[in-house]
Amino acid sequence: MPFPPRRSVRRSVALLTTAALAVTTLGLAAGSASAAEKDKDRTQGRDRDTLVIPNDPVGSVVDGIRIDGSREKGTRRDGKDRLELQASTRPQTAFQMPFRCGEDWYGSTRSSHSPSVLSVDWNRADDFDMPVVSSADGRVTTATRSSSGYGNWVVVDHGNGESTLYAHLNSIAVGVGEQVDSGDMVGRLGTTGNSTGPHLHYEQRRNGTVIHPWFDGKEFAFGTTLVSRNCAQAELPTAPYAGDVPLAANVLGGRADDATVWRRETGRFETRRPDGGMFRRQMGGGTDRPVMGDWDGRGKALPGVWNGSDRTFRLKTSKGLKEFRFGYKGNVPLAGDWDGDGRDEVGVWRANVTRFDLRGHDGGVFRKITFGKAGQLPFVGDWNGDGRADVGLYDRESRTFTLRYPVGTTKTFVLGPRGALPVAGDWDGDGYSEVGAWDPSSGQFTKQSDFR
Questions:
Q1: pTM (two decimals)
Q2: Which of 50, 220, 255, 361 could pair with 213 as two cysteines, CB 3.0-4.6 Å apart?
């Protein structure tokens, strides 16, 4: 069918401001090439799909955008008419860019963009197979692989009716039901489905309708380059530790376990000493997920990380770095002494099938435990003091910890502020683990001293 007359859409928007110029302080070195110059070197992929804007009278609304029938002077670098979009309502979710901290990306749209001109196509030089990360904390509701349409695509539900969509991925790194934090990898950029070249098709949605995107508290201006602040330092003041991960293990060699935090941005495991100082170890970063365990049975925990893209664990041992694959994409890594021999091993929580797969020292699956439901967060501890690690799950909304004992019985507790992350450790050195909650907004641990 013939394409209807093209109509531009307008938005009341201020010209470049001092705040917009502040992007130069976020990683663009003085004297470097301008964003516009960099854009010239970028190969822009796009969707084959088209959104047909009906030939309706002036003042009609398509995808929440008012069509006024006028045309702005000038064209974009790709020759398409430049779009001006109406001012939008700020979403409740504190969205960040869907890329790693410090990366600069060019975001564009066009009048034929499907399913909405408010969708963003992201590009940068050599972008194929680069990590794509979640724009905010949430739960994965879609992780679909397809050769048409969106291709490989992921949807993350952030609550309050708001969600984000990531399409044309080369690979998917998460599973349905998995809880993700801002900055967790959901896949890698690709050109699957109806795509003419590598790019990320990205949408922010409210109640299923595509809305104007916002990043770092600011409305996005299409046709510009932004630097990602999807990292711990760049989170809004309400969550300065967002993206970090709490852990507990015997790091310092005492009787009790030590509260530890893995800083995603720096890849540092930070353990507070009794004198208030910090003991730090460096490992991993970005889209890795941390684990800690006594891999050698020598009485002290050492760090490790798991990369969800290639499913590879990397553990620091007294004999050097140990690497192996275990689990599936979209799992959550764990560590514990499953058989009571004094040596910790790794495992994974598979949210899509609500099962823990615990690895044995021989590399196979030592035990499978079906338990809980998708959307809960896993943790590990020795609830009965028998020297063997048990499993548990935490619901962030209700703040409820559910512990599973070896015989299959459970016990529940409510602890910590809403939105906290679970952790468990032997806080008093008596051989029994207790639960704890870590608040990303304050960086503080709340520990349950004894629940027996």
A1: 0.59
A2: 220
